[in-house]
Amino acid sequence: MERLARADDRSGMLVHFMRKGVGLPAFAVFMMRLMPFWKTMKRVAPTLTYDTALTGPFQYGKPLAPGRWSHLTQPAMVVGGTKSEPWMRNAQKAIAAALPNARHGELDGENHMVKPTAIAPLIKTFFA
């Protein structure tokens, strides 16, 4: 990822993330590149270096270390959609369980790209 970032190969960064990080098949990524949103995603591709550095160590299917984040007291809300891949849903539940002051929620019919209108009521309740 860092090599692709240094070369400013934003499409390459997205392809690498989608194939290796998310696990999408090559054909799905090829089709994504033809969609209008690809251009939008390329604008934020440089943030993938931070995403992969932060999440990489936790992508080996091992449980989160007990107590690793027990000192974090800030309330947190971890939300995903019921249409997300099982590994994403499991990760969301594990993160919420590892944080001492977290709530977990799922939105029916949503994937991990939750619509703003779907998540807005949860955010409003969380901050109320």
Key features of this structure:
single chain; 128 residues; mainly alpha; 2 domains; two-stranded parallel ribbon; 7 helices; 52% helix; 9% strand
Give the domain tally. Answer: 2
In what order do the strands lie side by side in the largest sheet? Answer: 1-2
Silhouette = globular
Q: State mean pLDDT (0 to 100 scale).
A: 91
C-alpha-based Rg, rounded: 16 Å
- Stretches with pLDDT under 50, minimum 5 residues: none
Which range best describes the helical content: under 10%, 10-25%, 25-40%, 40-55%, 55-70% or over 70%? 40-55%
Please report the number of helical segments: 7
Could you tell me how far the N terminus lies from the C terminus, measured between alpha carbons in angstroms?
A: 39 Å
Label the structural class: mainly alpha
Largest sheet, described in full? Answer: 2 strands, parallel
Task: Describe the 3D structure.
By secondary structure, the chain is mainly α. It folds into 2 domains: 2-56, no CATH class; 76-127. Helices cover 52% and strands 9% of the residues. The protein has 7 helices and 2 strands, in the order H-H-H-H-H-E-H-E-H. It has helices spanning 2-6, 10-22, 26-33, 37-44, 48-55, 86-98, 116-127; strands at residues 76-81, 102-107. Strands 1-2 form a two-stranded parallel sheet. Helix 2 packs across helix 4. The longest helix has 13 residues, at 10-22. The N and C termini lie far apart (39 Å). The mean pLDDT is 91.
